[in-house]
Amino acid sequence: MTNGPKKASSASLSRRLLLLGVLPAVLMFSVLVAYFTSVRLGDARDAMAQSSQLLADNLAPVLEYAIVSGNNSALEQVLDNALEHSDAHWVRVTDVVGEEIGFSSAQGQQIDINDPRYKVYESEILQEPLLLDEENRTAWFRTGWDTGTGILRIGSVQVGVRTATLDLKLRNIWWSSLLVGGGMLLFTIILVHIFLGNLLRSMQNLGSRVDNLIGGDYRAETIDQNGVASEIIDLQQKLNELAQRLEQLKKTRDETLAVSESERDKAEHASRVKSEFLSSIRHELNTPLNGVVGMIKHLEQEPLSARQQDYLNTAKQSLQDLLTVISDMLDYAHLESGTKALDAQPFDLRELISNCIASYRHAAEQQELSLESHCLGDWPDKAVVIGDAPRVRQVLSGLLDHSLEMTSNGFIIVRTSWVTVDAQHALITCTVRDSSSSMGNINNLHNPNTHSRFGGAGFNLSMVQRLVELMGGLVHIELDMGQGTSFRFEIPFDLPFTEQAPA
Q: What is the reported pTM?
């Protein structure tokens, strides 16, 4: 599943690096080829124009004698020789009035000189008089008339060059530039690909090494330093150090887990031994205690004095307390081992709370404490819920036992609220508030050795918390110095299904 994205990202990285390496080369070569090609094209145009104009300029003084002397054969010979050694397609000579006196074309072709496919270069044919120095003039040149030194125009020479010739040269320049530039660009791409290929292979090796580390392969790998960048070599060395460190951490973790497993096994074994011990103790104690109970019942049928009856009641009450303590010990062992199972039966929650509080009124009156109970919220007429009624009673009894033990004077108030969550669920919040302000209340919540001295279930606060959590609820403690202590527990209950009558 993970190979696809990795390959895609690797290919994308390869393309990006190749693009980053090739793009500057492409841009550089494109600019250079365009620049030098434009320069060569301009030089070719200038060279063609200069050579053609130079041909016309050089022919003009050569043709002077042939025109002045009227030697047409010499004129034609000069024109033919000029065409053989130039790129011109035709040469035309005219006199001073524009009449054609000589014409020559390549291979004797019929040429239309007005054809726009020809580029025409022209030069004037001038006759220059012979100038002599004043000292060298002979006497017979001296006359009484001064004729001046003016230059006479005797005609013109035109050189026609086909534009296709220039276009061919320009095309050759373009092709040669493209071939040279393309070859250099291809060579550059190959070099970039080779260097980037080495870099990408090194990076892919690093990625494979990281994958091995993630997979738990912490073996050190040999570092190849031939043709590899120093930064890549440094990363490989650090990965080897990381692999060594991870290997050490793995060994330490395995050792710690082994010790933890051993300690957990020991703890579970100790818990099982404790539960078995408590169960066996209860069984072993029940037999002699049941015998004592039977003897006490027989003694109650005998005529006894008041003092003997008092001793017998004390023994009977102590025996009942001992049986309760043994039952609590077994329940606590089951809670600790997680084998405590809850029963789920419908019961009237309001009736259970009223009966539980009623059983503590006599103990509260003996300590001169005010015991009050209030039902808050929208209670239904029959507050029937589904749950473990004995365990709910034990939770409330445990909190009342604690309040009676910690409160010497003042009050104990029980407030119970009903909140209907929906048609199948309700949330019950019960707060037991007393006038005590001892910090021991909070510590007792997590102390499994704190038992109440009064009657009832005799549960400690730690077991109260465990039972509430077992029923899916929470226990909260609020301590207000000088004002009292509040224990609040919240327990969600399922409501029994009731069929609704048709409207």
A: 0.41
